[in-house]
Specification:
globular, mainly alpha, Rossmann fold, 129 residues
Length: 129
Amino acid sequence: MKVAFDNSFLVFLFNRRAGASIARVADRVDGLIDSLSNKKAKIIIPTPALTELLMAGKFTVQVYIEKLKMFGAFQIRAYDERAAIELAAQYLATKKTNKERAKQAPWNKIKFDRQIVAIAKTQGASAVY
């Protein structure tokens, strides 16, 4: 089993007091990681999500990377040729709705999120958290 995490999940590993609309969200994320680890699942961290985490700047890059490597379940995966092809296919398949989505969120944010999804999909993730 493989899943992917985006920055909105990763942030709670480093900032226990990050704002959230869910009670005890950091504990819940920890529980999810423990559950996935016990099932020998792999947690993919797409590099665009890692970039968002690193840009938070709460810690040095080294601290972030070392903590992520402490968990054997985490695998950092890059945006590569396969992901680029997947993203292009997704874009072309939804071309008509892309303009509408661009009105709801900045286009750069949409492209970043789509890179995360493309990486997760090409790595075989069954879910993105």
